[in-house]
Structures are given as structure tokens and as C-alpha cells.
Fold:
Amino acid sequence: MFQGFYDLTSTMVTQNRNMNIISNNMSNVSTPGYKADDLMMSTFREELIYRYDRAGKTPVGTVSRMALADERVTDYTEGGLRETGGSLDVGLSGNGFFTIQTSDGVVYTRNGSFNLDNQGYLILQGFGRVMGLNGPIQLPTDKVSINKNGAITSTETGQYYGTLQIVDFADYNQLTKISGGMFRADGQAQAAQGASVTQKYIEDSNVSMVDEMTAMMSGQRALQSAAQVLRMYDQLTSRMSQIGTIA
Structure:
């Protein structure tokens, strides 16, 4: 019986973590370029089950005890491109990330919803300046054309202002999500191959609200079931202790 306390409690803890991830996905369903997370679960302490009969003790299989939250995995599948009409909005197709210089260092994102700050630098609002191949990109106007390679020129004079720095990584396991679809990297970035930029579009989040709602309902049921059975265990333990006291 007491093993049941461990099993049920581990299920509740794991489902709570799963619900947190699902809630975060749902809150970022409208964040451009956001990549959904998923919780990979595993089990702990596999035990061999025996059958006892006249023939003696016979092994019949194994049972896994205690569900555990193994790791958080990010789905890097592309979201769809959505037209915005904004001249500084860019949607990214193919593998790669935009490079953003923040006060805490360089971060990477698929969010191409850019603006200009009061000094004319191209920025991702709330994070930092957008990096070009030769450093931060400064524009005197938002009347610009951005080609599929990320080169930015004036629509009026044709003047070249810079090219968006789009990078990729050989191993996405070296990326760590920080917030709002932003990533830090432990390894060396390299120029993205085959990435394409589309002006006046942004990449939508790849979160499926239907899938997340379904996962949330399933997780809630598992959490409620474990809590109900845990209360039953607690009541049985309490009655057993009362019987022991009376005896």
C-alpha cells in the first residue's frame, strides 16, 4: 500500500509539470515564431512480477513504477507564414534563426516582427537590436525592401543598409529556450543554408490550440484521478492506524 503513495505522488508531480508546459504553449499561441514544448515522461524502478501457484514461483513480466518528468523537448517544426503588411516584418522559411543582441548577450529567434527604435536601429521589441552581417542594422526610414536573402535596401534610392544575420546550428540540443520563443546557444552558430526571408509576413507559432486543449484535459483527468486515489489511500491508512490503536 505504501508504495502506492510514491506512485501516485510522482504521477501528480509529473502531471503538474506537464500542465505548466501546456499552459506556457497556450499562452504563446500568438507569439510569432514560437516553438512548442513537450514533456517527455519516463518511469522509474521497474520490478519483476511473479505468480505464485502450486507449481511455485513463476515470473510473468515487469511493471514500471513512478512516472517521472524526463526532459522538456522543443518542436522546431515551422509555423505557417501570415501576411501583416508591415515593411519591417519578415517571415523565415527553412532552418535558421535571426540574431538579436540583448543587454545580456546574443539570443536567437524565429520572431521577425521588427521595429525601429528612437535611434533608427532595427529591433525586436522588448529584447534588443537585430544583428546584420556587419553588426546592428540602422535604418533612416522604414520604407525599405528586404529580399529573400535578408538584404535591406531603400525603396526610394536603392541604398543598401545591411543584411540580416541568419544562423543555424548543427545540433539543436545546444539551444536553451529562455522566454517568448527566444533561445541561447552553448555552441557555435553557423550561416544558415537554404533559409529564405519573406517581407511583410511573419511566421506564426507552431502551437496547435486543439492539441494543447486535448492534452490539458487528459492531464487534468490523470491529475484528478491520482489525487482521488491518494485520498482513498490516506483514509485507509488512517482507519488501519485506528484499528491498531483499538486492538
Observations:
- The first strand starts at residue 37 and ends at 53.
- The first helix runs from residue 2 to 27.
